[in-house]
Amino acid sequence: DAKTTQPTSMDCAEGRAANLPCNHSTISGNEYVYWYRQIHSQGPQYIIHGLKNNETNEMASLIITEDRKSSTLILPHATLRDTAVYYCIVRDRNNAGNMLTFGGGTRLMVKP
Amino acid sequence: GAVVSQHPSWVICKSGTSVKIECRSLDFQATTMFWYRQFPKQSLMLMATSNEGSKATYEQGVEKDKFLINHASLTLSTLTVTSAHPEDSSFYICSARDIQGGYGYTFGSGTRLTVV
Questions:
Q1: Is the pLDDT of residue A1 over 70?
Q2: CA distance A103 to A86
Q3: Which run of H or of E encompasses B13?
Q4: What's the confidence (pLDDT) of residue B34?
């Protein structure tokens, strides 16, 4: 699976949009971009995933560049409860048996 | 959605004893489950892949005789930390994927193990 690069940490003001970037320049055509987050002392939580097109759900939006070499996770109105480590993971969705490989992630601190 | 239940959520044990952690898929069947370990301020590291009805596959550097994995049914995998030592103190997390349900990977809530 392709390697990803994320900033180590970011701050965001409560109520503002949080934009978390991820670089995955070696992504291949059949690899999806997944985003998970981990709130302190909990297991990771699925947020969103996408292949080419931008995606949106009740939690967040995922913007993938046209060349697919990078993406941005957007939390439109960050709350204090969004403080967590956010992991960007790239993998082949059709490879059912394989695990998720976690990088360092981005530690997002939402401040009042 | 797919739910993975992990138990216990925390455990304290004496050095030299064994501890069993359970991971259950509540509303789906999982032929494969994954066990991760996470040390403070670090990312999740895969320890092993648990396969229903067959032996687990361990990552390099993980002792299979120390971390016993049993995946006897399609909904239950267990991780037993044998002869635990303080350096085994960590946050252990399991994961499974509901392939037929179309969901992504679902994680348990984790088990905080403290060996004293």
A1: no
A2: 10
A3: strand B10-13
A4: 94
Instruction: List beta partners, residue B23.
Output: B6, B77
pLDDT at A62 over 60: yes
Q: Which two tokens stand for residue B80?
A: 């037993």
pLDDT in tens, B27-66: 888 888 999 999 998 999 999 999 888 899 999 999 999 9
In chain A, the residue whose alpha carbon lies closest to the alpha carbon of B35 is A99
Q: Do A99 and B43 touch (CB under 8 A)?
A: no
Question: What are the Cα distances from residue A70, in Å, to A3, A22, A33, A85, B36?
Answer: 11, 6, 9, 19, 27
Tokens linked to A105:
């992630």
Q: What is the rounded distance in angstroms from the CA atom of residue A88 to the CA atom of residue B2?
A: 21
- How many CB atoms sit inside 10 A of residue B63's CB? 10
Chain B: which residues have CB within 8 Å of chain A?
4, 6, 32, 34, 36, 43-46, 49, 91, 93, 95, 97, 99, 103-110, 112
Among A54-58, B6-10, B30-34, whose mean pLDDT is lowest? B30-34
Residue B4's nearest CA partner among B112, B111, B113, B105 is B105
